[in-house]
Amino acid sequence: MKIIDLRSDTVTLPTAPMREAMYHAELGDDVYGEDPSTNRLEKMAAEQMGKEAALLVPSGTMGNLVCVLTHCTRGEEVILGDKSHMFLNEAGGISALGGIQPHIIPNQPDGTLRLEDIEAAIRGDNIHFPRTRLICLENTHNRCNGSPLTSKYIESVAALARRHGLLVSLDAARIFNASIALGVDVKELTHSVDSLIFCLSKGLSAPVGSIVCGSREFIAEALRTRKILGGGMRQTGVIAAPGTIALEQMVDRLAEDHMNARCLAEGIAQIPGLSIDLARVQTNIIYFDLVSDRVTADVFMKQLGQKGIKLLRTGPSRFRMVTHYGIHSEDIDATLMCLGKVVEES
Ligand SMILES: *Cc1c(COP(=O)(O)O)cnc(C)c1O
Fold it and tell me: Based on the domain organization, do 198 and 113 belong to the same domain?
């Protein structure tokens, strides 16, 4: 039976050119800054993001942690969305390891934080209060339907931050999905922020790795933070070489994932017993609800599993599917057929 794995774009496997590149990668000790493949990747990534410098880290989670721990010290506060990956899915790292307090405000359905809410969350100068240091945004917004944040919005948050002497960090795990969906260069989405991370190992299909970007000064400090976290690695060229291929060869094809997600969402909208907000589908992540009284969420998941369809359950009757390099249009047709059967036959 063919498995159609729609849980996440992290399940993508490296391409043949990536495996070739791993085998042939020129290597050195990256803790001494001597791994040529890593240096090449970091330079390329910084250029693409329009930043002075970049740093390879093992995961997006460590990337976000490096950014926050580099910008903030203990007892300071970070303004974060209540549906952000950093708040929900990173094991409380900024608090556990950095003594940094998240100040949570609501994410809107399009992934934004209202400027009024941000402004109201900024602490005044008072000995009783923690100091606000940083605002974090997420683009595309994973939990908020994979929504892309526009450059205009990001700039408005950055301007607000500057007015209050704050910094902005962007969890840009899927930044290329945002740039393709919005039809703008990535740099337009990154120029106004102080730091960002993006993932090589999601839609871009590299096996491991994320990149932290920022000013030369910031990255010099981030290097120390990465070392503290145990993220100083040695012959990282085996990771960096496929990462370089990811940036060179795998960006434009993300448009295909968006088309597949669209087809999947439109198909789901036709299935009685399933409910989806089509207007929110803009990238490769879709969420839908089971609204059938004939099948429970447990049975729904189980029967799809038996048909080889893997998806993520994110609430009592809410589900996520993510399209990626391993999913082709015939997989979308097969998935829709299975979804229809499971809902109708129960
Ligand atoms: C996946 C993801 C991360 C973390 O990346 P890992 O490499 O899985 O640690 C961070 N932010 C967002 C929005 C993500 O989707």
Answer: yes
> Domain for residue 9, yes or no?
no
Residue of 9, 56, 61 best suited for mutating to test ligand 1, as the one with most atoms within 8 Å of CB: 61
Measured over the CA atoms of residue 147, residue 153, residue 154 and residue 160, the dihedral's sign is: negative
Q: Do 48 and 184 have their domain in common?
A: yes
**Which residues does residue 77 pair with via DSSP β-bridges, in sequence order?**
101, 132
> The domain spanning residue 261 has which CATH number?
3.90.1150.10
Closest Cα to atom 5 of ligand 1 = 60
Decide if 2 is inside a domain. no
Whether 210 and 62 have beta carbons less than 8 Å apart is answered as yes
Q: 171: Cβ below 6 Å to ligand 1?
A: yes
Give distance in angstroms: CA of 84 to centre of ligand 1: 10
Going by CA atoms, what residue is nearest to atom 4 of ligand 1? 60
Domain boundary among the residues 194, 220, 249 is at: 249
Q: Quick one: which atom of ligand 1 is closest to the CA of 64?
A: 10
The verdict on pTM exceeding 0.85 is yes
Is residue 232 packed enough to be buried (19+ CB in 10 Å), middle (13-18) or exposed (0-12)? Answer: middle
Question: What region, left, alpha or beta, does residue 146 occupy, with left being phi > 0 and alpha being psi -120 to 50 degrees?
Answer: left
- 173 CA distance to ligand 1 centroid (A)? 6
Kindly report, residue by residue over 121-162, the tens digit of the pLDDT. 999 999 999 999 999 999 999 999 999 999 999 999 999 999
**For 159-210, how does the pLDDT look when each residue is reduced to its tens digit (9 = 90+)?**
999 999 999 999 999 999 999 999 999 999 999 999 999 999 999 999 999 9
Whether residues 243 and 257 fall in one domain: no
Convert the pLDDT of each residue in 294-335 to its tens digit.
899 999 999 999 999 999 999 999 999 999 999 999 999 999
Instruction: Determine whether the shortest distance from the Cβ of 256 to ligand 1 is under 6 A.
Output: no
Residue 128: give the domain boundaries. Answer: 14-249
Question: Side-chain half-sphere of 96: how many Cα atoms within 13 Å?
Answer: 8
CB 122 within 8 A of CB 115: no
Domain of residue 55, CATH code: 3.40.640.10
> Ligand 1 centroid vs 273 CA: distance in angstroms?
31
